[in-house]
Amino acid sequence: MSLHAELRDAVAELDERIEALTLEAKPVRDQLANMDRTISKLRNERAAKAAKLAELKEKPRVSDHAVIRYLEREYGFTFEDIREKLLTPFVLAAMDAGAEAVQLNGGTLKIKGRTVVTYVD
C-alpha cells in the first residue's frame, strides 16, 4: 500500500473516531448545560433568600414620607400653612438681606439663598 493510501485511510479512521466521540459527548454536554442552568437558578434563589434574611435583621423604621402623611391625615396638618408661618415678613426681609440664619420661636431657621433649609434648637 502506498503512503498516500495509508494516510488517506488514517485520516478517514480519525474522522470516524472524532465523529463517534462527538456523538458520544453530546448527551454529556447537554447534561452539563442543564446542570449549569440549575446552578444558576439555585444561586439566584439563594441570593433572594439571603437578601430577605438581611432585610429581616434590619431595625424596623418609618419613612419621613409616612410620618408627613400621617401628620397630615391624622392631625390635619397642612404643610403649606406651616410654610407660611415660617416665612414671616421678618424672615423674608432677612432673606432679601442675604442672611444665612434667623432666630424664630426659640430656635434658628437656617437659610440658603431664598430657601429655609432647616430649623435647629
Keywords summarizing the entry:
single chain, 121 residues, alpha+beta, 2 domains, 3-stranded antiparallel β-sheet, 4 helices, 69% helix, rod-shaped
Helical/strand content category: alpha+beta
Total beta-strand segments = 3
Radius of gyration: 38 Å
Distance between the termini: 106 Å
Query: Low-confidence parts, pLDDT < 50 over ≥5 residues?
Result: none
H/E element order: HHHHEEE
How many structural domains does the protein architecture include? 2
**Side-by-side strand order of the widest sheet:** 1-2-3
Specify the oligomeric state.
Answer: single chain
Shape label: rod-shaped
Helix proportion range: 55-70%
- Could you describe the largest sheet, including whether it forms a barrel? 3 strands, antiparallel
**How many helices does DSSP assign?**
4
In terms of DSSP E residues, the strand content is 5-15%
Mean pLDDT: 95
Description:
This protein has 121 residues and is of the alpha+beta class. It folds into two domains: 1-61; 64-120, no CATH class. The protein has four helices and three strands. A three-stranded antiparallel sheet has the order 1-2-3, covered by helices on one side. It is rod-shaped, with a radius of gyration of 38 Å.
Summarize the structure.
The chain has 121 residues and is an alpha+beta fold. The protein has four helices and three strands, in the order H-H-H-H-E-E-E.
How do the strands and helices of this protein lay out in sequence?
Blueprint: H1 3-57, H2 64-75, H3 79-86, H4 89-96, E1 101-104, E2 107-112, E3 115-120
